[in-house]
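Reminder: ligand-aware prediction takes two inputs, not one.
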Amino acid sequence: MGTSSDLVRALNERIHELSSGVAEHDCVCECGDEHCVQVLRLTAGEYHALRSDPMVFAVVPGHDEDVGAAIARTDRYVFVRSALPNALNAPGVS
Ligand SMILES: [Zn+2]
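Here is what comes back for the chain with zinc ion:
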């Protein structure tokens, strides 16, 4: 699950880079399900808030239950704090 989330997060970083200067952009759901292809809409400010804590993931509403504790919830997204220790800082060995 961690690996899939890492890939999605890298993809979201890329989308964010390509969207620099726009007010809001799509983000791929970070629920960790490799079959999940849903997207959610984040403003630039929301995205920066999300990325300020590496243990927080953005998922579409309803996908948060297996990820961790919801810390913010709107119609568009849920921010979830994962219980996985340091998952995102692990070296990407496969
Ligand atoms: Zn999902």
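Residues 2-18 form the longest helix (17 residues). The chain has a mean pLDDT of 87. We will return to this case in the review session.
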